Amino acid sequence: MKFLKILLLFVFVQVSAQQGGMWIPSLLKGMNETEMKNLGMKISADDIYAVNHSSLKDAVPHFDGGCTAEVISDKGLILTNHHCGFDNIQSHSTLEHDYLTDGFWAYKMEDELPNKDLFVTFIVRIEDVTAKVLEGVSGLTAEADKQKKIQENISILNKSLPKESWQENSIRTFYDGNQYILFVTETYRDVRLVGAPPSSIGKFGSDTDNWVWPRHTGDFSLFRIYADKNNKPAAYSKDNVPYKPKHFFPISVKGLKENDFTMVMGYPGRTQEYLPSVAVNQIITDLNPAKIEVRDAALKVQDGFMRKDNAIKIQYASKYASVANYWKKWIGETKGLKKSNAVAVKQQFEKDFQQKVIAAGKQAEYGNLLSDFEKNYAEIREYALARDLFTEIALRNTEILTLGYKLYQLEQLYNTKGEQSFNDRRNNLINGLGDFYKDFSPAVDQKVFEQLFAIYLKKYPKQFLPSSLENSDASALASEIFSTSQLVSYDKIKELLTGDSKTVLEKINKDSGFKVIKAMADGYLKSVAPKYDEINLRNIATQRTYMKAILELSPKSARIFPDANSTLRVTYGKIKGYKPSDAVVYEPFTYLDGVMEKYIPGDYEFDVPKKLIDLYNAKDYGIYGSKGKMPVAFIATNHTTGGNSGSPALDANGHLIGLNFDRVWEGTMSDIYYSPDICRNIMVDIRYVLFIVDKFAGADNLIKEMKIIAPKKKN
Ligand code: ARG
Ligand code: ASP
């Protein structure tokens, strides 16, 4: 009996320790179904993914190539995050109709707003095509030749594999090139805005609360997919009709509790779970700190200006938020990797791996992988650092340099493709730059330049610093550029770009701002990029063989999932709180009471709309409340990453219970090392979404479309 208990305990620890992973929906049956059922799931793998009948996957489109959405009515209504719909909500906003500030609700279908470039993509079918992709590759020896052959095969197969005329084939690599999978997809391009709460709900807490638990953000927006008369994809037309989905999610408002099974389906972008310890160490000690330092400096400058000047705040709010998002993530990631001893965990894994290689008699094939990694990562260190610094300083955070780089590319284009290409690009550039200058403040960027260029001079590996720049003074150079360069205003740059190619190139080469970015870029492309690419190619090959070996030498029971690659995945776990640090315990649910606790009247991050305060005071929560309180958000052990925003959170029956939108700060390392102790995804509770749509916005037209499963009334 005691033995059995210990055994059970052991099995339990194994299961919970093993959670995490982003799984391929078509392979759940063999790999995950049993574990999912043990965790509480009541539906089958076949209900999640099937080709011959409708299944959950038919209700989960990729949203605009970067987020996830889910279908929630038989009239093509979809739900995604407010931050995923943000650009579209913004694009319809004017001073008279400020939908970002006030929210937007279509009370009739005629009022729904078309969006020019927005699209959603459904998966029709998933198929393994590894053998076809690798045909003729094994005979080649050079890595570059292998890659070329693979790319050729993929482009031929994408065209030749069977599909309907309105569909697309897309072949993607899994397990670092050890498996290739075909996705047959359908893309709908008439997607209209249906509803969005005011930012004081949809973006409540903004940057201060970003990546943070406890969270109180109603991060959702609603759209509708339109199709032609045959329910097929079609460009926008007023004659299009609401899309009839193969499946849509029933919504459960029955309530949630800790340890309930949850599952998240969506399109996670990128993870690196199988990096060797040397690579993780490099991220912790060299690369993340460098990137954080650059962004830290840029954000401090912008914040200083934004606090003093309202016009600058409007110009920089969105740029600031996007730079701050990964700045904050990298800080959390670095801390988490250190705290969880990720490097030591990986080293132990590598020790065991090496022993398995010996036990299997595979030294010849796999014996040198780890030492190869060590050599490669030591060799690439300075190049990788230079690459990250160049990218962050010149291409991402100093606006005048980022802009200058576009002119640099224009010059390159002229050198390789000639006059016609030059003219086309120049005209495009001029047209596109209006938007850039609308939100550009030379005063802000001069200070950013000064700070970031100083980091460049100090931190960029000395051997790669262009000689024309190495003795410059950041602050003197900043004043020179911002008083003489034509890049600082729209009128001046238009003048700079006027004339035939020869004249324009002569003029830009005399410009003080252009000279700096040209020296930086030339130096980078000559002394860093080629060597970086060469070592990186070796690393890619080593990583592929390492992954192959891990798959081959691990026991059948080991759960080895492929890294995220923006394809549809399923992850599952349980609703659970966590303990971020000594003496601190976080509960898994937040409530509207917490919104009111954070409320700062008039604040741009923590203001609360009056109507919501009234509903709170009246406790007018309808069927959405629970024990007199209004649930807002919850966390669980689902393994998610960027791209999972907007993903449906489902219960054991496959009913919608929430909408994924973030992760907890202490667990953002999950892209590199997932620890079930500390990694949690954050979801907005579907009851909060419905409460806002119904009680706050009064949009019962939308509520009526949905299939809502409410608890049975007790009399
Ligand atoms: N951290 C979340 C994600 O990576 C939300 C980002 C949007 N919100 C913000 N305050 N920037 O996308
Ligand atoms: N907020 C992220 C997204 O937009 C999700 C995450 O990184 O957890 O996809």
List keywords for this structure.
49% helix, 715 residues, globular, binds aspartic acid, alpha+beta, single chain, 26 helices, binds arginine, 7-stranded antiparallel sheet
Radius of gyration: 27 Å
Count all strands and give the number: 23
Residues in helices, as a percent range: 40-55%
For the termini, the CA-CA separation is 44 Å
- Low-confidence parts lasting 5 or more residues at pLDDT below 50? 1-17
- Based on secondary structure, the structural category is alpha+beta
Q: How would you state the average pLDDT, rounded?
A: 95
Total DSSP helices: 26
Fraction of residues in β-strands: 5-15%
Outline:
With 715 residues, this protein is of the alpha+beta class.
Please give a structural write-up.
- The relative contact order is 0.16.
- The strands form five sheets. Strands 3, 4, 5, 6, 10, 11 and 12 form a seven-stranded antiparallel beta sheet that branches. A seven-stranded antiparallel beta sheet has the order 15-14-20-21-22-19-18.
- By secondary structure, it is α+β, with helices and mostly antiparallel strands.
- Strand 8 and strand 9 (179-188) form a beta hairpin.
- The protein contains 26 helices and 23 strands.
- Residues 1-17 have low confidence and may be disordered.
- It is globular and about 75 Å long.
- Arginine binds at residues 83, 206-207, 210-211, 321, 325, 642, 645, 662.
